[in-house]
Fold Protein kinase domain-containing protein.
Amino acid sequence: MGCICSKGATITKNRGKEKESKKASSKRYIASSKREEVVVEVDNGANDATTRLISTENAEKSAGSTPPSRDEGNKQPAVLENSVVPQIPGRDTNGGGMSGGQPQMSRIFSVRNGVDGAQAVAGWPSWLTAVAGEAIKGWIPRKADSFEKLDKIGQGTYSSVYRARDLETGKIVALKKVRFVNMDPESVRFMAREILILRRLDHPNVMKLEGLVTSRVSCNLYLVFEYMEHDLAGLVASPKIKFTEPQIKCYMQQLLRGLEHCHSRGVMHRDIKGSNLLIDNDGNLKIGDFGLATFFRANQKQPLTSRVVTLWYRPPELLLGATDYGPAVDLWSSGCILAELFAGKPIMPGRTEVEQLHKIFKLCGSPSEEYWKRSKLPHATVFKPQHPYKHAVAETFKDFPPSALTLLDSLLAFEPECRGSTTSALQSEFFTTKPPPCEPSSLPKYPPSKEFDAKIRDEEARRQKAVGNKGVGLESYRKGSKESKAVPAPDANAELPASIQKWQAQSNAKSNSEKYNSEEDGGSGFPIEPSGVSLNKGRLVQNGISRSSLNMDVNEAGAHISWSRSGAESRMQRSNKPQGAAAQLSRFSNSVAARGSSRFDLSREDSAHSQWMDERLNAKYDTVSSQHLLGGTSSSHKKDEKAVTGGYVPKNSRIHYSGPLLPPGGNIEEMLKEHEKQIQQAVRKARIDKHKNTKTYADNGQTESLLQYVGNGR
Ligand SMILES: Nc1ncnc2c1ncn2[C@@H]1O[C@H](COP(=O)(O)OP(=O)(O)OP(=O)(O)O)[C@@H](O)[C@H]1O
């Protein structure tokens, strides 16, 4: 792959050799700096990825001299060396797509801008080097045409994931194509954080970033990962799979070991859920998707966003608005996974933050009076239940083995300090009592069962049912039917416009593969299997929408709903305007963590969020007429239409709230009742609007499902 360290590339630094090289290749050029001359050899075409970038730091190290300081290093010219890419029959040494006999061009230039310039020379696009220099430091990009894209295997909110063949090694890999909005520097920076974090981690239970694919002229970036056949959400959702205790122990052990490594490297994942736990055919589990992960420090001064972790797996401190939290958030999510593996389905599928907290109280009990007194969490006064809830874990899960319940109790402790650590969890008697965890290699070989596949299956089942006019699968899910297992968790940021794209992209239930779409790929030039069927982008898949929350924003007058947006989030929204009902319905889907505030507001993690919370607390939901919940279209709302369809709403004219809030002292049950009423009214309004505007909108499937779901009095 592109990682120099992994290839042990050599360095051209010796002047004698340099002369030799000059003889051997007239294309070589010497770029000089005050300190020394360095050899630069670049081909100027599509094959630029074959140049190797060796940062001065590495060069110095390899040369046995003292490495310069980081700052110095950045000022030094980097050394580029012709790559030693193995020859593949029929391909040129550069492994690129120029093997068709096209001449290779070279040009002469000097590297004037230190590492930045060298990175450009190495083939990195300027939009990337400008803001993500640190993340790509020491690496060179792979060329898109050194991979054969096979089929689409996953769809995240910010990415599409493809199975592909590495044409240089023959290995099957996963390519995660990151979606950028107009090359917005903040979204690039966000992705850079994911790359930096992935490069910091190295553990058998953590997905390894094997390389990056882009080119100087590309607008795309692909992250290359080892290919994993399954994810845990898909396996849990499969009606045919029921895990045994040794198997559950095996998965949990791997999860906790991977997390232990992350936490020991100062990284918290912040989005542990089944679909982010990838499993290969040898039973190895690897934690993936570090898109919401962040570095943490013991005495962290900088507040963090509480809008992370997919709702069903989100710990109470985040629901209560904590901005000073730690790796214990991942332990809570792991507790949810542990129970899910035994129960065969997610244990707390809340639709709103309010409902989620209510489910937590009902299962784990509400904390003591003492806790509420000392809690300084922004929402503590609002969400404190009037009557205490008793702890009901053992009662709810009476079939679980006792040692599992002990571990579960600790992981699902309301107060993060009581959850222990990954290390203490790994030492728990759950792993030492019989039966012991099985070996990963002894786990069954499952048929393909990604959450993505489950969604497709579920969608198909829903369609079938809809045809028979029998209501949605979610109903049967609630009754615990097998089919219903195939309902995935909402995404950690389902409210974002990208989620609309996500549902759109998933809409073709029949095909996992995708035709080469030059527009989408920005002409990246992946060879693609001819059998691919293009996705029907005109329809939306409903899945998840019906179980997501009402997390809406109203403008100051309470006259209209807009999405919760700040900073770059708004920018993203502007450039991804979901229209009409899609925009309206998307507001129902923002049940969970907003990557926006972290993904696109990195630098402000997360003062914007604190403000959001403050605003939220000031919001008076009863000023919002239900007819506004789905963004009415009457003329009086015209001025807010921009907000509804994705226009920027100045921060000071937005009020945000997540589900109805009562003033302090309110009762959570009443809140929930009122909440349901609001949803139903909104849906009735949507039904009317839908009939009026059916032809206008492209998301009928989604509207339909929401109506079916909530129409039953849900
Ligand atoms: N290495 C891999 N091998 C196989 N499939 C993968 C791999 N990485 C990701 N996937 C699939 O692609 C899906 C989306 O990937 P990922 O979660 O990294 O993207 P994301 O945009 O961050 O997603 P999300 O919005 O769910 O957080 C995963 O749920 C998984 O099914």
In short: The longest strand covers residues 147-155.
